[in-house]
Amino acid sequence: MPELPEVETVARELRELIEGKSIQDIEAVWFKSFDNQSSIPLFGQVVKNIGRKGKYLVIELTKSALIIHLRMTGQLLYNPGNLAAENHVRAKILFEDGTALFFKDTRKFGRIYHVDHIDDILYKIGIDAIDPMMDVELFKSLLKKSSINIKSFLLAQDKISGVGNIYADESLFRAGIHPASLSNKIPNSKIKNLHGQLLNILHSAIKNMGSTISDYRDSYGNTGNNQKFFRVYQRAGEPCFNCETPISKSRIAGRGTHFCLKCQKVYK
Fold first, then answer.
1. CATH assignment of the domain containing 62
2. Per-position DSSP letters for 200-220, written without gaps between them
3. Which sequence positions are flagged as catalytic?
4. What is the pLDDT of residue 85?
5. Residue 254 counted as domain residue
6. Which of 122, 145, 177 is the last residue of a domain?
7. 123 close to 141: Cβ distance less than 8 angstroms
8. Residue 29 pLDDT level (bands cut at 50, 70, 90)
9. Which among 59, 131, 175, 181 is placed 20 to 30 Å from 85, CA to CA?
10. Residue 85 contacts by C-beta under 8 Å, 6 or more apart in sequence?
């Protein structure tokens, strides 16, 4: 699933590609992919701003907004030529200048929401992980209030939004914290380190245009490069870069989780 760095990459590209364009229509190739919750007509509305909160892409229009969640396999491809319905195109955002943004989604989990107000969809989403307001003190206070394991905490989008399986595993490894550790038992020094490592990893991944495991593509159809720098994710059985202990994988927080038994301490 595209996480914060992948969605941020798409948002930055789309600012250059479609801001200022007027919408002609949205064509729903598969009816569930486009959820129109607004009575405001889309025709003639101009793309005013493109942002992101967590894993959601936010396209602000003149009078309403489009909120897009790519889910597992969603891609937003700008003017991709003759990409047809059999190539898993589920919706098309058509612009008055003849260009288009195609929503390709192999597994059909992604959604485009048309809403009157952004909060109609995002009201339950927590503060964005790279929001300047998410400083170490706020991060610490959120952890100290939580008794769930740290992997579950990082994946809980109502607490901090944007972090998924990849960047949770990578940041916990770099911070030396076992993913099964209880959030409120982690020492303050380790929390500070985790906060810094998480920010560094997310910003580095944005610089590397995101991570492509299988389906993620940017708006030009290109893959990301950050997967080249994984230290634990998808490296089960391979030697740890720090101590050469084989990387372990088990199910934590309902997800396949990668970690080093020697380098990452459990706090209970």
1. 3.20.190.10
2. HHHHHHHHTT---SSS---TT
3. 2-3, 55, 255
4. 58
5. yes
6. 122
7. no
8. very high
9. 59
10. 29
